[in-house]
Fold this sequence. Notes:
Helix content: 40-55%
Number of strands: 9
Shape: globular
Order of helices and strands: EHHEEEEEHEHEEHHHHHHHHH
CATH topology of the largest domain: Methane Monooxygenase Hydroxylase, Chain G, domain 1
Number of helices: 13
Strand content: 5-15%
Low-confidence stretches: 384-393
Strand order of the largest sheet: 1-4-5-6-7-9-8
Amino acid sequence: MPDSPPPQTLLRRMDCxxxxxxxxxxxxxxxxxxxxxxxxxxxxxxxWDEQAHRLRxxxxxxxxxxxxxxxxxxxxTGIAVNxxxxxxxxxxxxxxxxxxxxxxxNTCEFLTAFSTGDRSIxxxxxxxxxxxxxxxxxxxxxxVATCARKILPLYRxxxxxxxxERLIEEQVRYFLGFxxxxxxxxxxRLDEAAPLAPLAVSPAEALNAxxxxxxxLLHRLLPLLDIARGNPDRSFSPEVRSEGARRVIDAARQRLxxxxxxxxxxxxxxxxxxxxxxxxxxxxxxVPLAGLTSGHPSTDALGMVESLEMMMLTAADAWDGxxxxxxxxxxxxxxxxxxxxxxIVSKAREAGHDPERLAAAAQRxxxxxxxxxxxASTLQATAGTTSKSRTGL
Length: 393
């Protein structure tokens, strides 16, 4: 699949030599992290001016490229990137560039990101996606960043890979790697506003488009896991996600009816139809699971969500042709979890807790795992045979 088009402009490039732009950015930056002043790591990572309510990184402005919201001062959204890489902010946590990225000249470092206006996950993804596209246009191919455990799921759903982790001041900090093309593609799949491809005129085009839509269907399940943790967002709500899924499912079925008319494509069309049914079944389990756990989170319920997220992220990598991920997801989903889940529900009952909601969540979780295992077998059959530049098989 060709690279997705750049998103609608939300941000503008800041003039890092303009004192007025710098002052506005530092004020917005401070507002974005004002509630985190108690955090020791945040306190010594950046330079705080409490009296002026301004905040800046320790990387010189001439070594940065910064994007801020196109209007308003101070800006309500900002993303700062270390592009010269003379100093590495991540080194403050003891991290260093891996050999594969060191000296490449096409790697940058994300220094900070904030949003004080629209804090929705949808806005977050749109702003990041715009920066990813712009950085690619500037010649960058990879990026690194650090993050705390709380926001790790957001970056994982954007395609980030954990390179290393460290325990600092009793907090886990993660060193992340981003392949910008892959990250932009993952984000594009999450965008409900993105139009689906027009109806194809040939069976081969129809099959290719259907494969892309199945990739969209899989990736759009990931934000529901944030809802399952109890983090609602209108732009990523189950209602919005489910309506979008129905639209994608209908379009994929239309295209597969066209592709199966070609005898040479019949085997691939049948496999896509099976995958479409499996992905539809995943939606049928994960949407209710999100509703069951978000309203009454418990340690056991959140453990299911964490486990399912790991499996879903691995399945997404397998979908993009990663052979190791295809083998891993098959192994992760192979065991029958019925007895373990039954024990969890029994212990909740013995402890005097209402087990009904937990039991329903466990049932949905087990169903999703079984479906993922069947999906994994179809991915193993094709993993590594398809270019990672496509969204299909």
